[in-house]
Amino acid sequence: MALNGAKRLAGSLFGKAEMPDLGLGDTGKVLPLRPMMERLLSLDREAWGLYAWSREPLEGKFDREQKLQYQRKAEACGREEAVLVAAEAVLEVPDSLAKSAAASMKLHVTTPDTPVGGGQVTFAQYVEPDEVTIFMDAVEKAEALAASEGLADILGNMKIFDILLAHEIFHAVEFKKENTIYTKTERVELWRKPFSNKSRLVCLGEMAGMAFAEELLKLPFSPYVLDVLLMYGYHGAAATALFEEIMEIAGENGGKVEEETC
User: Fold this and answer.
1) What is the pLDDT of residues 80-106, one digit of tens each?
2) % helix / strand / coil in the chain, to the nearest 5?
3) What is the three-class DSSP state of 40?
4) DSSP string over 181-217
5) What is the spatial distance between Cα 160 and Cα 140, in angstroms, rounded to a whole number?
6) How far apart are CA 84 and CA 192, in angstroms?
7) Can you name the residues that pair with 127 across neighbouring β-strands?
8) Mean pLDDT value across the chain
9) How do strand 197-199 and strand 124-127 relate by DSSP bridges?
10) Which of 240, 213, 211, 214 is nearest to 40 (CA)?
11) Which sign does the torsion angle of CA 19, 23, 28, 33 carry?
12) I want to staple 102 with a disulfide (CB 3.0 to 4.6 A). Which of 89, 107, 245, 251 is the partner?
């Protein structure tokens, strides 16, 4: 089923997307990119929050309202940190606040084409304490698609590299403020005493990271919309399955986009 395939495929925009056989095959359904992007741009924050929660291992322990409360706090955290980072950044790179912020924070940013090893497509990653890697193959594929599909009018002057970098910068902020930042200090009680165990919620950092990138770069959309664009560059059927999953989570009917024909 496409939904299950997409869930196995992609964790989040800047994580790792596994590319083994997903039951999709080369002949899987491929929807045209632009209509999918238009639909994704129409989704509200609540929909994207529920999408983020679908990647959370502890997702089943919370009802919808609890998830949205956590989402609001995580996004507020991300926006607040973006304001602080922007205020402290020295504009060493005039056309890129993300690159300037990374430089001001003394992060080491590398830009190889692809990761070493097979089986996964990685878009970007942060390694504690100060290493950020942006894999340019993913960036270049997405930029070529955006150009060929004429997406500039709906996505504006977005810089995919900067969006990826901004998200990873937030994870560096998390590391620096591990003992005080909401996304690291918030815990959920898994079992009652005397077998008490408190666990972090992974999705809080991802939601905050997206809000951070959105605020830092003044984006007119949620960075989550790029999930499908980035994946489309590698596997059109997998990107379509992911799109349909997002629409299902959002309570939308993904079938309104007509399938491409040869």
Assistant:
1) 999 999 999 988 777 899 999 999 999
2) 55, 10, 35
3) helix
4) -HHHH--EEEE-TTS-EEE--HHHHHHHHHHHHHHHH
5) 9
6) 38
7) 131
8) 86
9) unpaired
10) 240
11) negative
12) 107
Tokens describing residue 170:
């937030």
pLDDT digits (tens, 9 = 90+) for 46-58: 999 999 999 999 9
Tens-digit pLDDT profile for residues 64-77? 999 999 999 999 99
Range list of H helices, 42-159 = 45-53, 64-88, 97-104, 136-148, 152-155
Q: What is the pLDDT of residues 186-198, one digit of tens each?
A: 988 776 666 556 7
The pTM (predicted TM-score) of the whole model is 0.87
Q: Interhelix angle for 97-104 vs 160-176, to 10°?
A: 30
Evaluate the omega torsion of the peptide bond into residue 20 and state whether it is cis, within 30 degrees of 0. Answer: no
